[in-house]
Amino acid sequence: MFRHRLEAAESLARRLSHLKGQNPLILAIPRGGVPMGRRIADILEGELDVVLVRKLGAPGNPEFAIGAVGEGDRIWLEDTANRFGEAAINREIERQQALIAERRQRYTPVRAPIDPAERIVVVVDDGSATGATMTTALESLRPRGPARLIAALGVAPPETLARLERLADEVICPEAPAHFRAVGQFYADFEPVDDDEVIRLLGSQPG
């Protein structure tokens, strides 16, 4: 168990220490991944931005993930999505796409997203159960031409990591427990991160 997200970030940064001096682009998945991304970017002397993805919740049970959606209309659906009607799924997709557009405007209103082309890109999240959001993030970034695409998570089950290894050039995850219920199970302090904190961290400078 990690004490908090920053401890997980420092564990990831140690495993990524070879990237220091190469100006890596750290792309955090909001909101929980952003404090971790800020710490990793500071340690590795890289740049921080966000990659915006949203979980798709099952109709009537929003906590049950049936996929994810990212910027650029990237959509990823679990096989379990077949249990639900197409119209209900499309409504959930449209709702999450609207939230992504709203977050981009709120988080980086005066600049475009940082271009990942020909950059070493590290996608950071505090953890993942199914890998839906990380999968969508990686799939949305690959066509944009990063030199190297790395997935970095605090915790995830082995089957999720195996899935991500097919999409990333490297997967870094210090904790891979076989018995996995939820990401928060592995953090003593798993307080929610709000939008004000995300905006502050994106605007802060290393050091």
From TrEMBL:
<protein>
    <submittedName>
        <fullName>Phosphoribosyltransferase domain protein</fullName>
    </submittedName>
</protein>
<keyword id="KW-0808">Transferase</keyword>
<dbReference type="Pfam" id="PF00156">
    <property type="entry name" value="Pribosyltran"/>
</dbReference>
<dbReference type="GO" id="GO:0016757">
    <property type="term" value="F:glycosyltransferase activity"/>
</dbReference>
<keyword id="KW-0328">Glycosyltransferase</keyword>
<dbReference type="InterPro" id="IPR000836">
    <property type="entry name" value="PRTase_dom"/>
</dbReference>
<dbReference type="InterPro" id="IPR029057">
    <property type="entry name" value="PRTase-like"/>
</dbReference>
<feature type="domain" description="Phosphoribosyltransferase">
    <location>
        <begin position="9"/>
        <end position="190"/>
    </location>
</feature>
